[in-house]
Amino acid sequence: MTLGNSHGPDNAVQPAPPGSPEAPNPAAVVVLAAGEGRRMRSSTLKVLHEIGGRPLLGHAVHAAAALAPEHLVVVAGHGRDQVREYLSGLSVELSRSTLLAIQDRQLGTGHAVVCALDSLPALSGPVMVTYGDVPLLDSGTLRRLLTEHAVAGNAVTVLTAELADPTGYGRILRTDHGADGAVTAIVEQRDATPEQLAIQEINSGVYVFEADLLRNALTRLAESLSTGAPANSQGELYLTDVLGIAHRDGRRVGALRCPDPWLVAGVNDQVQLAEIRAELNRRLVTTWLHTGVTVVDPATTWLDIGVRLEPDVVLAPNTQLHGATTVSAGARIGPDTTLTDCVVGAGANVVRTHGTGALIGAGANVGPFAYLRPGARLGEHGKIGTFVEVKNAEIGRGSKVPHLTYVGDATIGEGSNIGASSVFVNYDGVAKHRTVVGSYVKTGSDNTFVAPVTVGDGAYTGAGAVIREDVPPGALAVSAAAQRTIDGWVALRRPETPSAMAAQQALTGSDPAQSLAETERTPGPVPSANSGDTVGTSATPHGGGQLGVGGGTTA
Fold this sequence. Notes:
Spore Coat Polysaccharide Biosynthesis Protein SpsA, Chain A, 11 helices, about 25% strand
């Protein structure tokens, strides 16, 4: 399926081509977003609910901005402060201004457009009106609507669609029942007759008006309300009534049928939000499949609109790629992986990993069960292994952090290996500090690096070392005391236990039960004051101690 530029891989708003006599750029685009959205049953404003990594309103504004209108106006009512805050950031993203108009009282769509026009200078030329809760409507379809409006010489052009079940939508009234019959009016569901309710062609709510007609018709509708002769049963200012005025004034009213009803589908509740979210994701996945990406299970793969994928990327089941995540050719992601705003190099392999704001180099391996926090940087052919958490740390080319380790606020050079169960202690209770580990360093298992500290190139550390002071290049650092062994401690301090019986059998080859009975009859020697009661108590070495250098795994 071909998508417009608000849904496809290249979702950034591109500079619009200059308008032509056949399809000039609009004088203004008005995006209506003032509704409360009570059916959403959510504290989040309806138009700020996200699909594909972007609020509903964001999808609508992106599509509108791609038309390069002279003025772009969003009309808000409920939640105006949240909308204003969102538009502030969106304007930076789009590199253009977006005006916010306020509709204090929701008196209909026509009244909302009046609020928008009142915030603008006098206009001439086409004015487009669209909605902030119709997220799949793309700029390509909007451009075709503008072209139809200009080429046909219409004063009003409405975007329509045919639905098998048109319940809830306004119906298009034509001079005859054919597809080419002139549009005479739009009737809302609540105002329609039984015969009109049988019509399947519906109003999408998206229009192009000539500015002079729009302003004049809305003024006349407002006057009819003030005189007590409203044009509809609700006593509100309906934008749809403008079409009837144009028809009665002898102005040409036309329509463009949208062949894809999904493009004009709106969101009114959580059910519709979920349906449209799934449809957008299906389209995004399909688009990437056509570019050479392998998606093993499209049903469990979720992609944001800002994601970029190169050919020969493989996405395994239960993969979610969010934000501006970029994956280069030949990389494999998943299964069970969620990446947000990450960059993955060519040929990398990322398995069962949760990552945000991380960079993974070409040919690197991550996971399973890795956690990459913002600022994690893994060099080419490096490794972040099982149950490893990395935050604000640079791990050089070919370096490995294989298991059960926390690396925070650190720099690790090339070709180094960090032993299992190591901790980079970066916080002293007040401030964060950085650890620097050089290139081709081998650290033992269960090391603790107390920052700020530096381990020089080519250095080694022993198992269990607590590194508090800098280690020079090529040096060996150990901090654990030599091992002390107290013979017979279990028999003396834990008699009659399974451990004591197992030890006795191993030492003598006798029946453990018989040995214990003899021990009960013959009191053992009183332990010396040096024997101690605590396992692992430090003492003078009993024989030679082993340093455990390089106790970390290199796999």
